[in-house]
Known about the structure:
By secondary structure, the protein is of the alpha+beta class. It has a domain at 47-52 and 68-143: VSR Endonuclease (Endonuclease, Chain A), CATH 3.40.960. Helix content is 41%, strand content 15%. The protein is built from four helices and four strands, in the order H-H-E-E-E-H-E-H. The protein is globular, with a radius of gyration of 17 Å. The termini are far apart. The model has no long low-confidence stretch (mean pLDDT 89). Belongs to the Vsr family.
Amino acid sequence: xxxRSWASTPAVRRSMQSNRSRDTKPELLLRRALHxxxxxxxxxxxxxxxxxxxxxxxxxxxxVAVEVRGCFWHGCPEHHRKPTANSEYxxxxxxxxxxxxxxxEKLLSEAGWLLIAVWEHEGPADSAxxxxxxxxxxxxxxx
Length: 143
């Protein structure tokens, strides 16, 4: 490990590198709940071809994108705790993530899409019910 690493120790570096970007436990639970409601969707795909972002779950006909956000990585207003090690680095990193999330939401909205952010601590059944209702409404039918 070089002296310039963002990680405070080699163990922290290994732990952070092992974090998944897709198919996380909260994401899988939400997808199962949505599937059980009869909803079909695309996984880890771009809602818009020119947008760098890949949404976790995409309902193309309804123009709904769902992002399952981790409390640490996306600065959850309820659960995010400022790290004590490398605080300056992580504070800047989380701030950039929040700014990127806001920018993506704005770009999607301008293109007629709705981005639903689901926090990892939210129950998959309740989140699936909300998403089903929104998708149904945007498709012009009942959920």
